[in-house]
Amino acid sequence: MPAAVLTQHIEMTPGVVGGKPRIAGTRIRVQDIVAMHIYSGESIESIVAQFSPLTPAEVHAALAFYYDNRELIESALERSAHAEDDFRSRFPHLVRD
């Protein structure tokens, strides 16, 4: 995939979603797309339907970015999981199952 296609669809901006890679012009992080598709088994079409007006090309670009930067995204997913576990243990009364 040419780099221009990825930069058309993926941005990293300090101060926007913590500077994490995201779909250009949105606050939808690459790691969110990866979690939905790879770890939860959501189809591309389902992700597009849930995040309208996302396009299939943007979802594919997010997945391509993941495969090109797997360590970066896996690390972000791991940090998010730890933060969620910490929140659950500290504030169980605020968490719904």
- Spatial arrangement of strands, main beta sheet: 1-2
Mean pLDDT: 86
**Total number of helical segments?**
5
Distance between the termini: 40 Å
Strand/helix succession: HEEHHHH
Quaternary state of this entry equals: single chain
The strand count comes to 2
How many domains in all? 1
Radius of gyration: 14 Å
- Second rung of CATH, namely the architecture: Orthogonal Bundle
Secondary-structure-based class equals mainly alpha
**Global geometry:** globular
Q: How helical, in percent, are the residues?
A: 55-70%
Main sheet summary = 2 strands, antiparallel
CATH class: Mainly Alpha
What are its keywords?
single chain; 97 residues; mainly alpha; Arc Repressor Mutant, subunit A
How does this structure look, described?
The protein starts with a helix and ends in a 7-residue tail after the last helix. A two-stranded antiparallel sheet has the order 1-2. By secondary structure, the chain is mainly α. The longest helix is centred in the last third of the chain and has 21 residues, at 70-90. It is built from 5 helices and 2 strands. Helix 2 (30-39) packs across helix 4 (56-68) and helix 4 packs across helix 5. It is 60% helix and 4% strand.
Topology readout:
Layout: H1 3-9, E1 10-11, E2 22-23, H2 30-39, H3 44-50, H4 56-68, H5 70-90
Antiparallel strand pairs: 1-2
Helix pairs in contact: 2-4, 2-5, 4-5
